[in-house]
From TrEMBL:
Annotated InterPro entries: EF-4 (IPR006297), EFG_III/V (IPR035647), EFG_V-like (IPR000640), G_TR_CS (IPR031157), LepA_C_sf (IPR038363), LepA_CTD (IPR013842), LepA_IV (IPR035654), P-loop_NTPase (IPR027417)
Domain of life: Eukaryota
E.C. no: 3.6.5.n1
Subcellular location: Mitochondrion inner membrane
Protein name: Translation factor GUF1 homolog, mitochondrial
Keywords on record: GTP-binding, Hydrolase, Membrane, Mitochondrion, Mitochondrion inner membrane, Nucleotide-binding, Protein biosynthesis
Amino acid sequence: MRINKNILPILNTVKYAALKKDIPLWSTASFKRHYCVNADADSSINFSDIPIERIRNFSIIAHVDHGKSTLADRLLELTGTIKGGPSQILDKLQVERERGITVKAQSASLLYKHNGEIYLLNLIDTPGHVDFSNEVQRSLSVCQGVILLVDSNDGVQAQTVANFYLAFVNDLVIIPVLNKIDLKNADPQRVTNELKSLFDINPADVLKISAKLGIGVESVLESVVTKLPSPKVDRSANLRALLFDSMYDKYRGALSLIYVQDGCVSLGDSIATFHNKKVYEVKSLSVLRPDEVPVKKLVAGQIGLVGCNMRSPKEAYVGDTIHHTDCTVEPLEGFKSSRPMVFAGVYPTDQSQHINLRNAIEKLTLNDSAVTVDLDTSPALGQGWRLGFLGLLHLEVFTQRLTQEYSAEPIITAPSVTYKIRLKPTKQNVKDKSEVMFVNNPAHFPEQNRIEQTFEPMVIGTIVTPDKYLGPIMSLCMERRGVQRTANNIDNSRVILQYDLPLCEIVLDFHDTLKTISSGYASFDYENNDYIESNLVKLGILLNGTLVDELSHIVHVTKARTIGRQMVLKLKEMIPRQMIHIAIQAVVNGKVMAREDLKAYRKDVTAKLYGGDVTRRMKLLAQQAAGKKKMRMVANVSIPKETFIEVLKK
């Protein structure tokens, strides 16, 4: 293990000996004696007896791979909540462990002893990728402060900037923490200057830790207790609880993760929700440590899990307010739901699996409220759904969870975005206002003569990169029709760029291409920026003059020829040869953008000739050509389902 020499002065002899022997710091007797002062805290304490002044609700926010889950592990161990075990214990999903990223916010209640008093710390570990910003937003709605974690080696990244301003807008107290100071190439001074330059954070307020080795983690807990405010709640008022997350249990139905804003809720209480007006009896209450610990009562300021026999996943509406049935209260403000950015069709491989896939999607959307579901039908693939996601990684993770957790095998079509179209007034009454429609399926794109204006969704993209990759990155953004907003130097070697980019240009491979040309050093984040007028057209695919709607695309007019060429070449490879000649054409408003021909099977009708006049040979070939022409006039092009699947899949 190579240790950054700059941190050696803050280590005592015992700790340094542990480092040389490659022993985890938090497992040494000296470390436990000095730091785990609360490891023997009474785990049977009555949580509802802890006063409001000794409750802290906070989240850990950071860019991808800056050590959020590792820091959460150290906090759990340091407070005696867990006794060792696997790393990244809050990453419970199989997809999280396989990919090494957090995709689902997880909560844990910690008991921490400070100055002889027991404090209840409700920790929420959040994802770092931009596609799961909805999880961060929901988590921050129940917090009073955040730990802003920054890698001492990589420094401030794009999602660091986005998360900081998300916490800043929510008026939360921010504790800046530099992680991974043990790495050889760590430069805490440089990163501290970046925080000062970008966010005006006082360098003296920045904590320097190593979550992996446990260095300085105690100071994080002390800062949470001393710097974060207690929740502003009223335990004497009527019950008001915010339902900010949910999950499904096959034995108990839908379980609701709630933050009690006012009053209290006990076992056996009769509760109702504002959204669906249904009445339930509280069957179970628990706090997460991080496994469920049953309790008899949850009081204002606490976060806990409620089971009340919600049998349908649709009943647990995220953002809803829970209250007692015998009193009337004002609903909580909740939080603004994120709008889906990317849409894809999901179909069963066989229609006999339709019901099983529908049940799996319903249960999984309960655990991921950012996904929108609409029914859809395809002549080629049958009945299915049109699902909306926050990004391409969100789509991939959702699909992987369907396969791993519910043994489903869905067909996923290529992702698309939602376009806005203003139609011309009808001829019957030209004074009518123009009708506006939203389209995310190319099959529903109207005829060109009905369209007055077309609009495409835009995003504000933030790129943080070393300056030596500036040229290729700017070229990439210009190639994707980006318009530069700002370009500022973070320090002597790094630049932060902002571009207006069309969403359709970044949902597929923009992030991968950016990582490739920057050798993995550049980071990217984006936020929605409404719609802008754009020249959009429907790129149709014709097979022998017949339009195949399932293969159509909505594209910008400047990209029509390029995408059309790619499509016809792919179809030429995928469609099996048949008895007739097939002309594959990509067309826009009747104009052919690209064409490929798939030759027919040909029988050698002259094989039986062994001599004679050449007119005999010509007669046989003419008869064959006439037969082929007649067959082409009456025959339909047969496209196997497997071809549709391969072409439509991303």
